[in-house]
Amino acid sequence: MKKKILLYVISGLLLFFLGGLKAEAATSTWPSSVPAPPPSALTIRDVFGVVSGTNADTSSKYPQTVIITPYKRDQLGGIWSNKRIDLNNSFSYGMWLWLGAKNGLYDVPDAASDGIAFLLQNDVKKNQAIGTNGGGIGAYSYGNQQSGKTNYVKDSLAIEMDSWWNNIANLPAEHFDEDIPYAANSNGHTAFVQPKDLGKNSKLGHIKYWYEKNPTTDNNKDPKYMLANNHWRLFNINWVPKVTWQNGKRILGGKLSYTFGNNYDPKTGAVDNSTIMPGDMSLDIPDVNTYFGVDSSTSDPSNQSVLYGFTGSTGGANNFQAASMNKLPQTASPVTLNFVIDGTNTKLIDPISLNGEAGETWNGADRRQEWIQYNKEWYQYTGNYTADTPDSKDNGTFSATTGYNVTYKYKKQTPPENYALKKAVKNVTANDANWVTDTTGKTGDNISYELTYTNLTNISSGDITDKLPSNITYTKGSLQMASPDSNWEYKTIDDSIFISNQTVKFPYVIPAGGSFKLKLNGAINSGVSPGDKIINNATAGTSSSSVKSNDAIVTINKLPYKGSIEKGVLNETNKETKYQSKTSGQVDDLVKYQIKVKPDANSADKLTTIDLKDVVSDPTSDLDIDNNSILVTYADGSTQKESSIADIKLKDMVKGESATITYSGTVKRTTVGDIENKASVTAKTSGNETYSDSSKADVEVTEPRNTNMTIRYVDLDDNLASPTYISTEVSAAGKPKAALSTVISDRVAPKVLNDYTVISVTNDTDLTKANWSDAYKDDPLFDYKDKVITYGYKKAMISIDAPKLWDFGTNDPAQSDTTYYLKTAENKPQKISVVDNYGVQSWQLKVQQSTAFISTDTDKHELTDAQLRITNGNVIANKDNTAKGNINSKDKFNIDTGSEIDQLMTFTKLGTYQDNDEKKDQSSKDNPYTNPGKGAWDYQFGDDKTANYSVGLHVPATTKRYKTHYQTELTWSLTVAP
Asked: Which stretches make up the WxL domain (predicted)?
């Protein structure tokens, strides 16, 4: 803030002469060493005015910028906004600040000093408010001024950017920074300060302060950590309001916070966020009146607004200091709240203007009064308003371009005494939903009273007196109060005085139009009779001036019975035997309900036209009622059957008689929750008065229990009345809707069984009457009850039948090229037969000749080069075949010694079948296993016409023939493949 002793004296003389100068525009030049500020479309003259008689000046070179102090000694500058900021709404504001090239170092001739301050102010001098130069940085008074002649910005709060550490021991006026550590003597600091009359001592008393220094070297002359660092630095400030109440008075407060230090690079236009000063630079302000002298209790925002601006100064050193606009506060179009007499344009009070930031929320109801006094008459808000907002609501977000209007409508209330103290009542036991002036009740009911007092008759202090009738017994500890101080939440208060004399003091002096509420409970005692009216009212005020409330009335019911209906439920599946108001169960559980209806034992009246209605919360999804089980049993033993619980007409009854209704149902609900079941009864007395009552009994559906699953495997050709299981049955337990695979990893649905083919499946336990369906690869789910799954299989069988002997007979042994044919009986062709029952694999017929034709004598002659030759081969399929697939065959082939002829007859299966490799098993519910069926095929050698010429043995002429028997062996085989 300052420099040396000699400069302090000169600065003081300069202040003396400034006081007599006329306000005139300063002429300032822009130093060549100071770079251009960040660009902006804003113009400083549109927003701020320069304080007359100071050295501040707007820049012609950069219209967004104000020069607070030119590059000279002993300068003083100040600017104030043309418009005020509304403290009722939040705002954010940003400026780029130039504080100089270096901080106030005592050993540097042109060190920066003294600094600038941002202020919010409500000074009576308005836009001409200014403090002193030098250490006062244009905001504070200077310690050498005479008492009564101090200059400082009054009713204000400053955020100083102080580049000089003022603490010279032998000069009283140099103690501004006595509370700032010496470590900040050359770096500069920022702080919250409340300007005030310092008298002859300039010790400020910073509210909160921050400074930086090199954290590792403790070098407080490191330029990196200096406030004035030869850069434009960003200063952002934010305000968030908070309204509280104390003794019924509105208190406007909030939080003011700022950030400082982002360096601007004029060459690149980049902003360096790493240079921002660390720390929580915020100040909680409980009451704006503490700093700004504004009345925060008023609804008029003009009394809760401030000017904003900057001041600054230099002392014994030249320093150029400037501020350049970045963002303006509360630039949104305002919202205007009007308060008019309903049906007219007469305004009860001046409109309230809400100002804020575009996009931020506003709520007109927060500023709306319930009561407004106008021309000595009271007007109450009707609950109606008009608004030209997009959704016609009295709340929303501020628009940057469009202002909104909300008009609240009020109605005159005459005389106001009728509204000053209002009393309401509620029957808590009967679950009354609203506060009313008249309700009903019976002995033992809990009654609650509410009193609302509003100061409409100039009674601002006193007592509420509420002498409860003798029929109401006060419930100790139930006395509660609500007021603006509690944000209208009821808070329990001490009731000792109320218990002794049934009075409650006003919580504080109630302002005109202000309100508070009381609430207390009491029970209807036994000293009442049907038809009695319990009338209660209260007074508010003093012995000399008071108002009386309306009557709050409780009429005693003429109900001739008490507890006339009682409903209970038990879970028969869980073997419960006692009815209760609530039980638990699960899907498929059997529950039983009981409803008892009877007149009160002390009633002398007869109940007629008794109508019982029983309602399930969701009858389609929660409970399956057995309508055949509904039975009404009377006290005399007589009964009546009913087909629905929706409407049951009961016999007339007098005291001592009763009706018991029972019925059963099965739980259908599968999700956790309550099945609510409410029975209601209405009846008439002999006096034709209608009464009603109800009772509930619920079933809590709990997390389902584990159920069992059993899987069996049977041969469908077995006696299904008592089958022999072809594989061990599988048993498992699990949660309903859980898959079997969660508890069993084996492949069991169905199993792959050797020599068996799965065909079908059923969930029926009686297999003699079972409904079978096609089986498929499954991962069955557990049900809500035990289940049995049975898979039906067929024994798989494949066989081949071939002739035991082919005899070519006795032939001429002459050596010639000859084919000898196999002769058949009656010209019937030879054949190879294949039978395939329920096989799932494709197959093919093969033949192999293991050796040459060899004589049967001891010489073992070989019939060399002899060859079997087959022609006219064909396949004959059985007409009853059900097998699924395609058959193919060869019509001719030759058999050589040692060779194998395959694919004589090939059957290719079609369909979906089990595979030993589960991953290759393509079955699903939509693609079940194919029933492979049964089949029989004959590979036939010729037909009736060609049978004797279809199997031949060719022997070439070169083969020597002996008179002997020759034979060989043919092997017919089937090869199966997946």
From this structure: 795-978
161's CB contacts (< 8 A; 6+ apart) are: 97, 99, 115, 116, 117, 118, 188, 190, 227, 235, 260
| Pairing mode of beta strands 335-341, 305-313 | unpaired
Q: What is the pLDDT of residue 588?
A: 86
- Rounded to whole angstroms, the Cα distance separating 100 from 90 reads 31
Banded pLDDT at 16 (limits 50, 70, 90): very low
22 pLDDT more than 80: no
Rounded to 5°, angle at Cα 539 from 536 and 541: 170
CA dihedral 296, 297, 298, 299 (to 10 degrees): 90
Q: Are 978 and 912 in contact (CB under 8 A)?
A: no
The DSSP H or E segment spanning 260 is strand 249-264
pLDDT > 80? residue 817: yes
Per-residue pLDDT tens over the stretch 411-441: 999 877 788 999 999 999 999 999 999 999 9
Flag whether the pTM goes above 0.70: no
The rounded radius of gyration (Å) of the Cα atoms in the chain is 53
Greatest alpha-carbon pair distance for the chain in Å reads: 163
In this model, does residue 20 exceed pLDDT 50? Answer: no
Nearest CA-CA partner of 625 in 687, 569, 673: 569
Residue 301's pLDDT is what? 54
**Among 668, 690, 672, 671, which residue's Cα sits nearest to residue 681?**
690
Percent over 90 (pLDDT), the chain: 66
Q: Tokens 């100064």 — which residue?
A: 313
For residues 19 and 186, what is the distance between their CA atoms, to the nearest angstrom?
31
Q: Cis bond leading into 605, ω under 30°?
A: no
- Is the per-residue pLDDT at 311 higher than 70? yes
| Percentages of the chain per state (helix, strand, coil), in multiples of 5 | 10, 40, 50
| The token pair that represents 329 in the structure block | 């506060």
For residue range 828-859, list pLDDT tens digits in order: 999 999 999 988 899 999 999 989 999 998 88
Kindly provide the b/e burial profile for residues 508-534, where b requires at least 16 CB atoms within 10 angstroms of the residue's own CB.
bebeebbbbbbbbbbbbeeebeeebeb
Q: Check if the beta carbon of residue 274 is closer than 8 Å to that of residue 283.
A: no
Domains by residue range for the chain, with CATH: 5-87+94-233+303-327 (2.60.120), 335-412 (3.10.20.320), 417-556 (2.60.40.740), 573-594+604-697 (2.60.40.740), 707-795 (3.10.20.320), 798-977 (2.60.40)
Q: What is the DSSP string of 670-681?
A: -SSEEE-EEEEE
3-state secondary structure 6-53: HHHHHHHHHHHHHCCCCCCCCCCCCCCCCCCCCCCCCCHHHHEEECCC
CA dist 903 and 847 (Å) reads 9
Could you report the per-residue pLDDT of 661-698, keeping only the tens digit for each?
A: 999 999 888 888 898 888 888 887 766 667 778 889 89
261 φ/ψ sector (left φ>0, alpha ψ -120 to 50, else beta): left
Q: Give the whole-angstrom CA distance, residue 252 versus residue 298.
A: 10
Tokens standing for 647? 């409407």
Sheet containing 648-650, strands listed edge to edge, beginning at the edge strand earlier in sequence: 648-650, 608-616, 677-684, 690-696
Q: Which residues contact 293 (CB under 8 A, 6 or more apart)?
A: 122, 154, 155
DSSP state of 418: H
- If we measure between CA atoms, which residue out of 782, 798, 857, 788 comes closest to residue 833? 798
Neighbouring C-beta atoms of residue 199, cutoff 10 Å: 16
CB 906 within 8 A of CB 887: yes
